[in-house]
Amino acid sequence: MSKLIKNINLINIAAKNTKVIANLQVTKAITQILDILVEYNMIEYKILDNKAIVTLRYNNLKPTIKTINYMGGNYYNNIKYIYAKRELSTKKSLYIVKTSLGVMTLESAVKHRLGGTLLFKITI
Q1: 88-122 burial: b if 16+ Cβ within 10 Å, else e
Q2: pLDDT digits (tens, 9 = 90+) for 64-105
Q3: Does residue 54 share a domain with residue 86?
Q4: Is residue 36 within a helix (H) or strand (E), and if so which, with residue range?
Q5: CB 25 within 8 A of CB 50
Q6: CB 54, CB 24: distance < 8 Å
Q7: Sequence-distant (≥ 6) Cβ neighbours of residue 101 within 8 angstroms
Q8: Which of 2, 74, 97, 117 is the most exposed place for a label (fewest CB within 10 A)?
Q9: CA separation, residue 75 to residues 47, 71, 105, 117 (Å)
Q10: Which of 43, 63, 83 is the last residue before a domain boundary?
């Protein structure tokens, strides 16, 4: 888990410092999260030599990712359906959840009626 946090934190640091590129070590969870961020048009990435080269996207000279917060990833942060519905109504953040089907957005987890562990909150 610490590798995942460290790698996602590199994207957060790049966004805060208005850097364009971050280099991440590739794992299955990292790839799943990067695919989600590509789907939401926040980044682009390619994999070279077991490293993911991430290019942040910008909108009006501001990064599309404002911050990424690690939410603890323990059983205290297991999501409940009611909490999930309330958080999804704000549309200001993207939540990344670890479920029995892998890493996905909170929206996808609710759609599939899955519970899971809240990993990251990405402020858009």
Answers
A1: eeeeebbbbbbbeeebbbbebbbeeebebbbbbbb
A2: 898 898 887 655 555 555 566 666 666 778 889 888 899 999
A3: no
A4: helix 28-39
A5: yes
A6: yes
A7: 112, 114
A8: 2
A9: 32, 11, 18, 7
A10: 63
Model-level pTM? 0.82
pLDDT computed for residue 77 by the predictor:
52
Say if residue 75 is in the same domain as residue 119: yes
**Which structural domain, as residue segments, surrounds residue 7?**
2-63
The pair of structure tokens assigned to 67 is 């911050």
Asked if 112 and 89 sit in the same domain, the reply is yes
Residue range 20-25: mean pLDDT, rounded:
84
Q: How many domains does the chain have?
A: 2
- 76: tokens are 């205290």
How many Å separate Cα 75 from the centre of its chain?
Answer: 19
